[in-house]
C-alpha cells in the first residue's frame, strides 16, 4: 500500500465554451496547469490560493466531480478516471456555504437521508449518527430543524454528513467561510480531531491563521500552478529577512498605493478594508526602513496605529502569490514531488 492517500501528476483542466450565435467563437480557459501533489495518509494538508487560482477545480478533479484534460491522479490508491466508483466510496466532500442540507428536516433526519445514499447499513446508522453528532458538538440539538441553525452549526453538520461512510480521505473546501470566530474555533478543533484519528484531510481556506494552526503541510496555488509547498515553517522562509510595516489609515488612494510600491526597498504593498479602517501592509527588504517614506506618501490623511513586526505566514503567502519572494530564501522541497502513478 502506498504511503500517499492522494497522488497527482501533471493535472490539467481546460474549460471550453462557445459565445455568439451567428458567428460563434470558441473560448478556452485553463484553470489548472500541471498540478503535482502527494499527500500522505493521515496528513492534514492545506491548499491555499487567491480566488480563481484553481483550488476548487483541483479538489473537484481529485474527488471525481471533474475529469482532467490531461494528467493522472490516484486517491486512496484508485485512479480518479478509471476507478471512479472506488474513489467515491472512500472519500467525503464538505464545501462551504448553505447548500447541501435540507432546511425543513432535523439534523438527525438529514444524516439518516445521507446515510441511505452512502449505503450505510440500517443496523449501523443509529450508532454512526450518534457518534458523529457527538463529534461535531450537535448532540442535544439534533431534533431541531436545520433552518434554525447558525452558519457554524450548519458547517459542523456538513462535516458529519461527509463522514457518515467512514471515508479515508476528506476534502474540506473553505469550511469556515462566513463563520463567526467562536464557531470557526470549534470547527478547527473538529478538523484537528479528524486528522488525529487518522483521516486524511485536504483543506482549502483563505484564512492564513487557520492554515498555520492546523496544517502539517501546505501548498500555495496561483494561476493554476503550485508555486510553493512545505510545512508552514518552510513557507515562512519566503518572507525571511523582510521587515513588515502595518499602518491603519482612512482614505488611502490607488495613486498613493502605487507610489508606495515604487519606493526603494519595498517588495510588496497591499491594502485591506476592515470595516471603516484600511490596513496597509508594506513588506521591505532586510535592513531597509521604509516607515518615514511611507508616512510621507500618506501625509494629509488620517492615520491610526503604525506597527513594525516580523513576517507571518500571510506575509509569505502574499510574497509567493505576487512572485516577490526573497531571493535568498531556500525553496522548500515540493511536497508534490509526486510518486509515479
TrEMBL record:
MF-aspect GO terms: ATP binding
Protein name (database record): ABC transporter ATP-binding protein
InterPro entries linked to this entry: AAA+_ATPase, ABC_transporter-like_ATP-bd, ABC_transporter_ATP-binding, P-loop_NTPase
Protein family (similarity comment): Belongs to the ABC transporter superfamily.
Pfam families in alphabetical order: ABC_tran
Presence of keyword Transport: yes
Location within or outside the cell: Cell membrane
Keyword Transport (UniProt): yes
Entry-linked Gene3D superfamilies: P-loop containing nucleotide triphosphate hydrolases (3.40.50.300)
Membrane topology type: Peripheral membrane protein
Amino acid at each position: 500500500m502506498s504511503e500517499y492517500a492522494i497522488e497527482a501528476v501533471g493535472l490539467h483542466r481546460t474549460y471550453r465554451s462557445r459565445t455568439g450565435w451567428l458567428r460563434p467563437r470558441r473560448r478556452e480557459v485553463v484553470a489548472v496547469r500541471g498540478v503535482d501533489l502527494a499527500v500522505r495518509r493521515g496528513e492534514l494538508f492545506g491548499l491555499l490560493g487567491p480566488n480563481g487560482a484553481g483550488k476548487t477545480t483541483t479538489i473537484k478533479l481529485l474527488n471525481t466531480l471533474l475529469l482532467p484534460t490531461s494528467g493522472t491522479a490516484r486517491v486512496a490508491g484508485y485512479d480518479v478516471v478509471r476507478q471512479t466508483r472506488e474513489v467515491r466510496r472512500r472519500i467525503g466532500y464538505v464545501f462551504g456555504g448553505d447548500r447541501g442540507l435540507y432546511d425543513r428536516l432535523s439534523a438527525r433526519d438529514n444524516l439518516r437521508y445521507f446515510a441511505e445514499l452512502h449505503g450505510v447499513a440500517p443496523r449501523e446508522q443509529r450508532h454512526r449518527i450518534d457518534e458523529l453528532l457527538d463529534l461535531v458538538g450537535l448532540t442535544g440539538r439534533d431534533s431541531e430543524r436545520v433552518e434554525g441553525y447558525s452558519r457554524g452549526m450548519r458547517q459542523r453538520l456538513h462535516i458529519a454528513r461527509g463522514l457518515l461512510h467512514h471515508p479515508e480521505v476528506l476534502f474540506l473546501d473553505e469550511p469556515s467561510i462566513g463563520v463567526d470566530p467562536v464557531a470557526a474555533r470549534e470547527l478547527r478543533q473538529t478538523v484537528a480531531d479528524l486528522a488525529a484519528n487518522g483521516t486524511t484531510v485536504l483543506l482549502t481556506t483563505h484564512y492564513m491563521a487557520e492554515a498555520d494552526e492546523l496544517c502539517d503541510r501546505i501548498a500555495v496555488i496561483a494561476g493554476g500552478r503550485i508555486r510553493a509547498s512545505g510545512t508552514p515553517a518552510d513557507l515562512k522562509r519566503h518572507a525571511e529577512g523582510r521587515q513588515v510595516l502595518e499602518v491603519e489609515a482612512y482614505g488611502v488612494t490607488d495613486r498613493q498605493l502605487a507610489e508606495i510600491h515604487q519606493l526603494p526597498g519595498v517588495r510588496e504593498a497591499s491594502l485591506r478594508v476592515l470595516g471603516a479602517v484600511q490596513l496597509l501592509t508594506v513588506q521591505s527588504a532586510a535592513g531597509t526602513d521604509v516607515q518615514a517614506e511611507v508616512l510621507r506618501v500618506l501625509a494629509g490623511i488620517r492615520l491610526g496605529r503604525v506597527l513594525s513586526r516580523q513576517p507571518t505566514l500571510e506575509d509569505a503567502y502574499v510574497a509567493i502569490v505576487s512572485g516577490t519572494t526573497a531571493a535568498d530564501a531556500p525553496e522548500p522541497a515540493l511536497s508534490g514531488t509526486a510518486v509515479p502513478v
